[in-house]
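cron nightly-structures :: item 1 of 1
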Amino acid sequence: MWDIAPDHAPGLIAGLAMVPVALAALLLRRSRRRVAGTVQAAAVLMAVAGAVHLGLVPSHLGEPVTAGLFAGNGVCYIVLSQAFTWRWWRVASFVLITATLLGYLGYIALGLDQPDQVALTTKLIELTALGLVIVPVRGRGARGDAASRWALLATGLPLLTFVVGGTVWGVDLANPDVRHVHAGAVLQATGSAATPEQQAAAQRLYDETSAAIAPYRDWHAAWAAGYRPSGPQTAASTHWLNAAYAGRTVKA
């Protein structure tokens, strides 16, 4: 039942492909030794988020504004992921990630897009990167600056996480879409009433099933035919399986 929108799959693939690339790029840079591990981790996560956004561009070319936002955001993420030694890197990263998160909330609130697993995963990556960006580095900055950052981590980040998650679920439940039901569940839409053909098919299935199980109303007959009970024995009903039919495909 759970799936992702087909037009978002390239973003997921691009994000996964970026993980080893971002790690390799980081390890090849000697300057990484001058920054904290939290900064390095945030840089990798930002590169992954950027790759996801860039991967979504081709499938959204029919929506110029959306494609442009994905492209611009992806480029900014990747550029900043490589500029972690820049003096203003933390400030720029904080602004970019926060603006991206809030911009996405506004985008789905206006009904311009529906959330799915790719979007939710990307938001989780961005929230994690934001937390790593905020974490103060020991021995750098004033004591008051470190205290304010810890306060922001303790209050601001959880609040932003709650707002992002609450908005995503609220929008998804208020605006159901057969392609993105319940934040990504892809369900087959059905009519509100069965057609005569569907009723006939259901009755035929019922009759055939009733005839097929009639010889096994006595469990001794089912046992003799090779069927064995499975699942909890204390339930109101029990499923009986026949190992001889395991792996076979039933043709309708």
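cron nightly-structures :: done
The chain has eight helices and two strands.
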